[in-house]
Inverse folding.
């Protein structure tokens, strides 16, 4: 009587009245109507607008501006007439580091104020124009390499002297060993070629010795190639994947099998695992108390205290203070006491959580197709991410490229003849138009921002992000609603498995798409708006980080923390609202209200189930990822020999790359399977709470819960009276 009274008091009217018995309700309602139609129409309009933005971006954008390097005339390297010349070579790489602020602001990306030409292969040796090239009668063709000169300039037909060729930057005056990095010929400073002892005796830049030349080269290339060759490492990694991909796939298959077996076996092992984990947590706390007590007693003769130590960054000093271990001891004792009291008073609710976990495992055994639904979600998310990335790339390169006349070297001649912001056509440009400024070049500056479409590129990028987030959240919501409908069909089948509908997952998926696109889009929209606010806050924080004072930083930190909490809360509400939508077919607001009220009327059960499930699934992920990771380490490091196979660890350049790939893939696989399980637990829990409120075990209102749950709650279905 006391427990029943307590439950009645818990189900008070503060969070709504308990659900009433409905004789027509036998599971997810089939006779339902469309919900949140206005939001459905709005979502369709946003999708249509998103497609229009994608088409416009495709028409106006040119991703070659990002994917391929350019020469000084604006032609792409690696495509078109330069198809056989994939890399761009800089005549004077040093100018990339010594460019003035004005030039650095004008030029974008990896553009440098020096002539650039497309080449078949990057130079592989040191070379500098020898003094003999300036002797009377010397032919430039005997000294310069035609492959590295401006394409429109022919050495064999020129009448220019070597000095004129250098001043007009028609051919480079020097070059050095370089490697193509992202299509740019940059020095590979990771090898021995740039050791000062390997420098040719005549290879020094004007006004610098050998060491000064090397320092200038390092500054020019920056961190990109300071320590290793990116392309070489990438090729080695790709080679490793090509040699070991079969074993990587085998590791991922093992992770999938272990995940499925773990979830299915929870039907039998859940009670043991849960209690072992709980006792393990208590044992760790007890060990901590014992250890802190031992350390506290061992420092009995120590005279150190906090007033002697003061403030220091050396943590080891504080561990020599006796009061530190006393504080640890008190904290651990309090935590251990709380855990023991919670275990004593909440043992019944822990048993309920275990029973629901077992029931979910049993449901998965009857509906194995639910385990593979994350593949559908993954494919849809991949489509969303791909569309967003491609649209963002095309939008970023929208507008015709703008070229302007720029003096590469203002110290040569009089370059005042170049008008400010003077535009040019790279294909028609001729430096002879500026006879007093031989270093005048037509270079790419930016993309045209004139026109309605170009002026609104920033707004379109914001729209791209907003629509992307809405679509992603909708796909996740669709997955939640689909799985909830399938698990709801299982729970509300009175005679299991006979009363479980045929293809419950497909039926649930079709119901969600036919009736509840608007409701799912409504929940996704609320979450998207909060995420957009978080993105804006992060952008503002990054933009004005240096100008912020401590008070502003504190306010920004509080705002980011509040919206992070709000996002987590909305995800929790949405998740349970989608479960109610899948079962009862009501609109989003009503479903969210009913779910929240139901959970608040059983808040203690909610907390216990959530923590027990989190603990169990964390252990499961640790088991799958850790076990497969350890197996991959022993295999790819050669510690496990596999007779009858041709795989050799010594053939790998970096054996840790396959290991990282297997571990990361195993985590994604485990997360996908366990997310289905988590959704099943949440759905069955809500159904269980509804079952308790709707029914009383009488022949007219029998319980749908399992016999194990009824046994824990001391409830049972009464047999119908016979006449």
């Amino acid at each position: 009587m006391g427990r029943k009274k307590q439950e009645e008091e818990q189900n008070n009217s503060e969070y709504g009245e308990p659900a009433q018995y409905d004789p027509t309700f036998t599971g997810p309602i089939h006779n339902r109507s469309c919900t949140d139609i206005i939001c459905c129409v709005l979502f369709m309009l946003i999708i249509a607008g998103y497609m229009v933005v994608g088409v416009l971006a495709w028409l106006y954008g040119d991703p070659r501006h990002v994917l391929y390097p350019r020469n000084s005339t604006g032609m792409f390297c690696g495509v078109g007439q330069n198809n056989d010349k994939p890399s761009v070579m800089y005549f004077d790489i040093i100018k990339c580091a010594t460019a003035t602020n004005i030039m650095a602001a004008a030029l974008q990306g990896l553009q440098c104020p020096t002539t650039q030409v497309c080449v078949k292969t990057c130079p592989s040796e040191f070379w500098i124009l020898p003094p003999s090239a300036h002797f009377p009668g010397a032919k430039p063709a005997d000294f310069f390499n035609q492959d590295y000169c401006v394409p429109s300039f022919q050495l064999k037909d020129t009448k220019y002297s070597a000095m004129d060729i250098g001043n007009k930057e028609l051919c480079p005056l020097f070059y050095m060993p370089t490697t193509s990095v992202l299509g740019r010929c940059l020095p590979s400073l990771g090898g021995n070629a740039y050791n000062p002892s390997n420098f040719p005796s005549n290879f020094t830049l004007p006004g610098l010795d050998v060491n000064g030349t090397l320092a200038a080269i390092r500054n020019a290339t920056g961190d990109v190639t300071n320590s290793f060759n990116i392309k070489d490492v990438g090729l080695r990694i790709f080679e490793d994947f090509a040699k070991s991909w079969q074993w990587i796939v085998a590791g991922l298959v093992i992770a999938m099998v272990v995940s499925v077996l773990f979830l299915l076996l929870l039907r039998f092992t859940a009670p043991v695992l849960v209690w072992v984990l709980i006792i393990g947590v208590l044992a760790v706390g007890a060990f901590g108390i014992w250890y802190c007590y031992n350390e506290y007693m061992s420092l009995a003769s120590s005279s150190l205290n906090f007033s002697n130590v003061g403030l220091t960054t050396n943590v080891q000093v504080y561990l020599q203070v006796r009061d530190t271990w006393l504080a640890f001891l008190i904290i651990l004792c309090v935590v251990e006491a709380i855990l023991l009291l919670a275990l004593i008073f909440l043992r019944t609710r822990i048993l309920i959580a275990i029973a629901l976990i077992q029931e979910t495992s049993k449901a998965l055994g009857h509906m194995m197709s639910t385990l593979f639904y994350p593949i559908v979600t993954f494919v849809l998310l991949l489509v969303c991410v791909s569309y967003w990335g491609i649209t963002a790339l095309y939008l970023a390169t929208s507008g015709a490229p703008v070229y302007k006349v720029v003096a590469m070297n203002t110290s040569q001649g009089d370059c005042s003849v170049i008008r400010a912001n003077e535009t040019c056509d790279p294909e028609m440009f001729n430096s002879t138009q500026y006879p007093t400024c031989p270093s005048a070049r037509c270079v790419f500056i930016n993309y045209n921002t004139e026109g309605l479409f170009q002026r609104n590129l920033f707004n379109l990028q914001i729209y791209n992000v907003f629509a992307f987030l809405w679509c992603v959240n909708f796909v996740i919501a669709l997955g939640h609603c689909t799985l909830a409908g399938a698990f709801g069909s299982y729970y509300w089948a009175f005679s299991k498995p006979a009363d479980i509908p045929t293809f419950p997952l497909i039926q649930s998926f079709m119901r969600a798409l036919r009736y509840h696109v608007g409701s799912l889009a409504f929940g996704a929209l609320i979450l998207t708006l909060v995420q957009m606010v978080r993105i804006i806050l992060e952008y503002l924080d990054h933009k004005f980080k240096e100008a912020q004072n401590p008070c502003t930083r504190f306010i920004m930190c509080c705002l980011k923390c509040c919206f992070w909490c709000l996002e987590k809360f909305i995800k929790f509400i949405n998740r349970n609202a989608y479960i109610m939508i899948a079962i009862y077919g009501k609109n989003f607001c009503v479903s969210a209200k009913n779910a929240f009220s139901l959970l608040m009327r059983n808040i203690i059960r909610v907390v216990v189930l959530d923590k027990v499930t989190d603990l169990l699934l964390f252990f499961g992920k640790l088991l799958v990822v850790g076990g497969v990771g350890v197996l991959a380490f022993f295999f790819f490091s050669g510690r496990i020999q596999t007779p009858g196979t041709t795989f050799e660890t010594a053939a790998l350049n970096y054996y840790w790359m396959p290991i990282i790939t297997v571990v990361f893939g195993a985590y994604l696989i485990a997360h996908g399977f366990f997310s289905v399980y988590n959704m099943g637990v949440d759905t069955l829990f809500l159904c269980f709470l509804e079952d308790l409120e709707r029914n009383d075990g009488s022949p007219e209102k029998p319980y749908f819960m399992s016999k194990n749950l009824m046994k824990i709650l001391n409830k049972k279905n009464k047999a119908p009276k016979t006449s």
Remarks:
- The chain has 22 helices and eight strands.
